[in-house]
Amino acid sequence: MAALDHVVINTLKSMDAAADLFAALGFTLTPRGTHSLGSINHLMMTPGAYLELVGVPDTGRQRQEVLDSPFGLNGLVLRTFDADATRDTLAAAGFAPTGPVAFSRPVEVDGVEHDARFCTVRLPPETFPAGRVYFCEHLTPELVWRDEWMTHPNGFCAIDAFTIASPHPEAEARRLASAFASVAEPDGAGWRVPLDDADVRVVPGDKAAFRTATLRFSSLDDIAARANALRDVRWEALDPDAGVLSLPAFDLNLTCRSS
Predict the structure, then answer these.
(1) What pTM was computed for the model?
(2) What is the helix (H) or strand (E) element at residue 42, kind and residue range?
(3) Residue from 58, 72, 22 nearest 42 by CA
(4) What distance in Å separates the CA atoms of residue 137 and residue 97, rounded to the nearest whole number?
(5) Which of 134, 170, 197, 229 would be 122's cystine partner, CB 3.0–4.6 Å?
(6) What is the pLDDT of residues 149-185, one digit of tens each?
């Protein structure tokens, strides 16, 4: 059964605004990274899966894959410890994976620059029409999961779930389960595909779309207060332990739950 590695939020050419907004919401962002593929990013780390803001620089090489994708939830990324084996397993299951593709970005640690290195295995866009689904192998995890980036003023501590809308939820859930070496289970009006440390939920929808990621916080008090104080953010309390954080400028809704 696969594990969730990270969830991608596409900012396109609005990285500065997105980074400022997430910092104002109380997230600790890693320093800006520049990928060798032509994209830029900031991460919001937890001991497990993390949130990634991705975009393209104003000048120089620009990653077409990012430019071709919409604002908001843009990638559901699973972890692999062997990209070659994952490619072969996906092919044997009837998928058409591409890669592995190797890339890197510089990271400064204690004044010394290192290269954080990755390999990804991707699936063609038509495989999962809701959005990009791929696998990532971290070749230098010690440069990504660092203690100084793990603590967030708003109490963010985990990603518990990822919700996908589909006109054909059962079929979509079964395809996801096959790719993730998991199972598809009925879950209310939709379907659940469990991962090692999170759930992917597939719910009925008029069109295929990534709907929300569920973030866990030690408490919702701080994130709710910060959201309510910001002009371009909406906070909707669902109950004492849950709420929805909406960022209209990035076409983004994030479900928030307290521990």
Answers:
(1) 0.93
(2) strand 40-44
(3) 22
(4) 15
(5) 134
(6) 999 999 999 999 999 999 999 999 999 999 999 999 9
